[in-house]
Amino acid sequence: MKNIRRLREFVVGMTGLVQRLGREETALLREGGELLGRLIANDDWLPDAFAAPHRAHHQEYLLHCDPLGRFSVLSFVLAPGQKTPVHDHTVWALIGVLRGTERIDEYRHEGAGAPMQKTGEHLCSAGDIEVASPAIGDIHVIANERRDQAAVSVHVFGGNIGGLMRRTFSLANGEPRALVSGYANSLLPNLWDRSLEARA
Predict the structure, then answer these.
(1) Which of 35, 65, 186, 198 has its CA 20 to 30 A from that of 162?
(2) What is the dihedral of CA 184, 40, 7, 46, to 10 degrees?
(3) pTM for this structure?
């Protein structure tokens, strides 16, 4: 069985952080990034069903949503060669790469009718943490350029990201389109059953 205790400890830690720091985004991203770094330092906890790629598009699997909607945690899976559309988030985000390598291309929206302006690009490998928010920039493309391995990352958002109204953008003319991403799964991993640990 996967060591789901690591995810449970992360969820408990993030719940405490959002309770304590509230809207102090800079501190929340810093301390949340430290928690996420500890989670992705070990690759023995994510159930296989939440790391399965889809041949046609990326997958977003909900792992946990705070009952008050203050944050959500998901696994994000890109099959070899896949990438997302250009999209925004509208809330803060932490991205920690668990497996493989992701390329992140950052963009700025100049308004409908103007091409999207690329502002940077970089690679994130296993163990790396990326931050985004409307305050520092939250429009990007995430790509898996490898042809031999899926990329799996853990994303933490400042809201129930699957239910938020967001946008994708045309690279050519910046035209926005409404996006509500939802989730690929209908069941959640069981973080709270400690029976196996008690018997160990």
Answers:
(1) 35
(2) 50
(3) 0.95
